[in-house]
Write a structure and sequence with these properties.
InterPro entries: HATPase_C_sf, HATPase_dom, His_kinase_dom, HisK_dim/P_dom, HisK_dim/P_sf, Sig_transdc_His_kin-like_C, TCS_sensor_his_kinase. The chain is an alpha+beta fold. It is 55% helix and 15% strand. The chain is rod-shaped. It starts with a helix and ends in a 6-residue tail after the last strand.
């Protein structure tokens, strides 16, 4: 599941706090180490100046000596070493210190700074130990790190709570819209969206806009469905009259032979219109109201549709073959499958001038393959658009057959796949994934 907006904001602020904290620690540690050297040198220089002043008034004044500072003085004329400590320890330190350059230099025996101050009276050696300062610095750095972590936690938590309150209405609104599945809703409209009273102006504006959009979509879908249903019902009566009248005229012995061909065209057009009306009636029904289902043999429905169009193929001298490679059974409305197959067969007949049309029934699919004009990739992209025709000047079809086939297939879980090559033919496959018995 993708990360929510509040968590992303929290992570962003946490990352910023970590970077800021690490930068602060690095800066403080760098400043502390630089300040360590500066303070140590100023300290040693102040101690040296104070000792030289005391030495000027009291020749016996000893060099400073303590836990963190040791002083040694060597007279210019080469006299005795002056230091509070004596013996071998003083001599050993003096031998090491004599090799140090004048001024400040790091101690080699421990962490610290050495000052060699040469004047007319002699040379003063001041060695400062900074181990205590380093321990204090380490404790300060550790305390700063702990304080930084605690601050980072508090800031992150407060930021998370604040950001959550700010974006939670948008987050909740996105979840509700994300759960919307148009196929689960009769009108294709999301359920009523809710916002809390304390939601921000942005969330309330989005909710209001989505409510308005949902209402408009719902009204549009209802109007389209009601019009389709009413128009289909109203067209059934005149179509029935036309079909019965044409059958009676065709069956009348007094009808001249030259009128049989126009009557045949009328009957075919009537059958096509009835198939379209049947499909529209199925699509106009509410999703929760499905046509009457029954268990049937797919082969029987295919044979029935082949019988309806066989005269069309014979009049065009096209070969129509039927290959049974499986006998699937469906628990579904057989008329729906018949309408889909009828549209595919009439399309194959309309766009195939020479050659053949093969209908294959496999264990989980129906394949209609023709040797017609085929379709280019550009046509394939729009072939399912209602009222789209590759040849707008053609008198065959109204451009809604494949659109109806695809919508019916989506409605009943029978996806339609189409493969076509220009000047070679088209293959349409109905995959009977759902409702197989």
């Amino acid at each position: 599941m993708p990360q929510g907006l509040p968590n992303r904001i929290r992570d962003a602020f946490t990352f910023q706090a970590v970077i800021a904290g690490m930068t602060l620690i690095v800066c403080v540690m760098t400043a502390a180490f630089i300040g360590r050297e500066v303070v140590a040198r100023q300290w040693l220089q102040a101690e040296a100046d104070a000792w030289w002043q005391a030495k000027a008034t009291n020749a016996a004044y000893p060099p400073p000596f303590g836990v963190n500072l040791q002083g040694y003085f060597m007279p210019a004329g080469g006299g005795d070493l002056e230091a509070i400590i004596g013996g071998d320890r003083a001599v050993a330190n003096l031998l090491w210190f004599k090799g140090a350059p004048e001024g400040f230099s790091p101690r080699r025996d421990t962490e610290g700074v050495l000052l060699v101050d040469r004047r007319e009276a002699g040379t003063l050696y001041l060695a400062a130990s900074l181990s205590l300062f380093d321990r204090i610095l380490a404790l300060a750095a550790g305390g700063l790190a702990l304080l930084m972590m605690a601050t980072m936690f508090v800031v992150s938590w407060m930021t998370y709570r604040t950001s959550k309150r700010m974006v939670l209405p948008i987050h909740r609104l996105a979840d509700e819209v994300g759960r919307w599945n148009p196929s689960d809703n009769d009108d294709g409209v999301p359920a009523a969206l809710t916002t809390q009273d304390d939601a921000g102006r942005e969330a309330q504006a989005l909710t209001s806009a989505l409510h308005g959009l949902g209402d408009r979509i719902g009204a549009f879908v209802r109007r389209e469905r009601e019009f389709t249903r009413d128009a289909s019902h109203e067209l059934r009566t005149p179509l029935t009259v036309i079909r019965v009248a044409s059958d009676m005229i065709a069956a009348d012995p007094a009808t001249p032979p030259h009128q049989q061909r126009p009557l045949l065209r009328i009957r075919r057009a009537t059958q096509d219109m009835e198939a379209v009306i049947d499909a529209l009636l199925v699509l106009a029904r509410e999703r929760g109201v499905m046509p009457q289902s029954e268990v049937f043999e797919v082969v029987d429905v295919v044979e029935e549709e082949l019988d309806k169009v066989r005269q069309l193929f014979e009049g065009k001298q096209l070969s129509l073959t039927f290959d049974i490679q499986g006998r699937p059974r469906l628990d579904a409305p057989p008329r729906v499958l018949g309408v889909m197959l009828g549209h595919l067969l009439r399309n194959a007949w309309a766009f195939t001038e020479t050659g053949r049309v093969d209908v294959i029934v496999d264990r989980d699919r129906i394949i209609v393959r023709d040797t017609g004009i085929g379709m280019t990739p550009d046509v394939l992209k729009r072939v399912y658009d209602p009222f789209y025709r590759a040849d707008p000047f053609s008198q065959s079809g109204k451009g809604i057959g494949l659109s109806i086939v695809r919508r019916l297939g989506t409605r009943f879980g029978w996806p339609v796949a189409l493969d076509s090559t220009p000047d070679e033919g088209t293959t349409v496959t109905i995959v009977l994934g759902d409702r197989l018995v």
